[in-house]
Design goal:
By secondary structure, the protein is an alpha+beta fold. It folds into two domains: 102-306, Pnp Oxidase, Chain A (Roll); 315-449, UbiD C-terminal domain-like, CATH 3.40.1670.10. It has eleven helices and 23 strands. It has helices at 22-28, 45-49, 77-84, 91-98, 179-190, 206-212, 224-232, 312-315, 319-331, 361-370, 392-401; strands spanning 34-36, 56-58, 68-71, 107-108, 117-120, 146-150, 157-160, 164-168, 171-174, 195-202, 237-240, 247-249, 254-261, 266-268, 283-285, 287-295, 301-303, 336-340, 349-354, 379-383, 409-416, 425-426, 434-443. Strands 5, 6, 7, 8, 9, 10, 13 and 16 form an eight-stranded antiparallel sheet that branches. Strands 18, 19, 20, 21, 22 and 23 form a six-stranded mixed sheet that branches. Strands 1-2-3-17 form a four-stranded mixed sheet, with no helix packed on it. α4 crosses α9 and α6 (206-212) crosses α7. Bound molecules: manganese (II) ion. Manganese (II) ion is lined by residues 158, 180, 215, 218, 224.
Length: 472
């Protein structure tokens, strides 16, 4: 259970400056990093990463001795807060407040660690990078790096984590399903251009990744990259690309430079959605041509985001969503303890943990979330502060014991469905669009009940004696 606090007033102070880069972050936070020194095959990193609840660093990839690999940096709150350098209880309020602050912008530097090795032209072969397969059903490996594109009208740097399948040494098919990237591609086309510069950025401090996944009204004021320094409370150093008109984070581990062909689309097999299903199928995707790879000299750390099951993939794209919803709920005057798209919620469901002010508030709060701009709030559950939001069993318990289905559940029919939700009704001729209903569930303790009825019984000395102390 998180500590009670007022909305928008939680601490925004970082304890000293954050690290500039991923390797600094991993060193500073070595107490939570699982380091695997034994040799691991590239084919096993996904299955091994997905078994880890903590950040994991593979020091010895058999097939790629010149690289290291890491994953699972932000699966849990207790790790997400490290990205902002604040206490777990202050993390969400801090991110929510910083997202309401003006963009800090970017500073350009002449060079940086990511320029230590430069591979240009034919040397820039994606096959040199430890790009893993993510599932047993995909035909190609999958790049999950942060990518940067520049809005040709405003010059702002939009970023996302749209994935790319490498289909040749210097060619990839990119799943640009993010609406902003689509808008920016159309702007280049409207200017008569048939190529768009792009940079794939591997191995960044996790705050970059949290910000890169922002979606909301911002394109006329800033790009995600201009806000990274705002949420980190420090300046962000960018360095010019070798072959395209872009700057990239100077402290990244690896950068792939290239251009996107805006004229043609190509058949691609399914991508694994955050819902963990192979949806949408039969996509038509643009192609990416690689023109350069730059990286660090000292065993660069390839940041992977294993897509299934229950990994960063379900959580990372929704961390800014949580902060945006937190702000909305606070605007209602609610005391909000947490907003969570849990890793076990298939990226379709959201839990809000609030104090119950009076009748009527909870349904409005549920509707705020169910009506979110994104397609991730099909099921929203409101719980009280005594429900452990980190424990699926405890949330289920609240739904089982604090919900009168006759009064505490409502369904909204015929809303937009997530592309990755197989239960959604496909729209004829509008693939991959679907419709679905949405459900709001009030699993809070309510004043209409006898509060004493909700006091649970526990074993004598529960929480004081530990089984582990009695094992050999
Ligand atoms: Mn954007």
């Amino acid at each position: 259970m998180t500590a009670k606090r007022g909305c928008g007033a939680a601490g925004t102070e970082s304890k000293g400056g954050l690290d500039k880069d991923l390797r600094g972050f991993l060193k500073t936070n070595s107490d939570i990093v699982t380091v695997i020194a034994k040799p691991v095959s590239i084919d096993d990193v996904g299955a091994l990463s997905a078994q880890s609840e903590n950040p994991i660093l593979f020091e010895n990839i058999k097939e790629y001795p010149d690289f290291r690999m890491c994953d699972i940096l932000v699966k849990h709150r207790r790790h997400q807060c490290r990205a902002l350098g604040v206490k777990e209880a202050d993390y969400l309020a801090t991110l929510a407040k910083r997202l309401r602050m003006p963009p800090r912008g970017l500073s350009t530097v002449k060079t940086g660690p990511v320029k230590e090795i430069k591979l240009l032209g034919d040397q820039a072969d994606l096959g040199k990078l430890p790009i893993p397969f993510h599932t047993d059903i995909e035909k190609y490996p999958y790049i999950t790096a942060m990518n940067i594109v520049k809005d040709p009208e405003t010059g702002f740097y939009n970023s996302s984590h749209a994935g790319t399948n490498p289909v040749g040494p210097r060619r990839g098919l990119a799943s640009f399903i993010t609406p902003h990237t689509q808008i920016i591609m159309r702007k280049y086309l409207a200017q008569g251009k048939d190529q768009m510069p792009i940079a794939l950025c591997f191995g960044l401090h996790p705050a970059y990744e949290i910000m890169a996944n922002y979606s909301g009204l911002h394109m006329d004021l800033w790009g995600e990259m201009e806000m990274v320094g705002t949420i980190m409370d420090m300046d962000i150093e960018m360095v010019a690309c070798e072959t395209v008109d872009l700057t990239v984070p100077a402290h990244a581990e690896i950068i792939v430079e290239g251009t996107v062909n805006l004229k043609d689309l190509f058949d691609a097999r399914e991508i694994i959605a955050p819902t963990m299903y192979a949806l949408p199928k039969n996509q038509r995707l643009p192609e990416l041509h690689v023109s350069a790879i730059t990286m660090r000299a000292d065993r660069p750390i390839y940041r992977n985001h294993q897509v299934v099951p229950n990994t960063d993939h379900q959580v990372l794209p929704r961390l800014c969503h949580e902060a945006v919803l937190y702000n909305r709920l606070c605007e209602m005057g609610l005391t909000v303890h947490d907003v969570r798209f849990p890793t076990w919620g298939a990226a379709l469901s959201c839990i809000i943990q609030i104090e119950y002010p009076r009748q009527g508030f909870v349904n409005d709060a549920l509707m705020q979330c169910m009506g979110a701009p994104w397609l991730n709030t099909k099921m929203v559950v409101a719980v009280s502060p005594d429900t452990n939001i980190d424990d699926p069993g405890d949330v289920y318990f609240a739904m089982a014991t604090r919900v009168d289905p006759d009064r505490d559940i409502f369904v909204v029919p015929n809303t937009r469905a997530n592309f990755g939700d197989p239960s959604g009704l496909p729209l004829d001729d509008l693939y991959p669009h679907r419709t679905t209903g949405k459900i709001g569930i009030d699993a809070t303790v309510k004043p209409r009940h006898n509060l004493a009825d909700f006091e649970r019984a526990w074993p004598k000395n529960w929480g004081k004696v530990h089984l582990s102390d009695y094992l050999d």
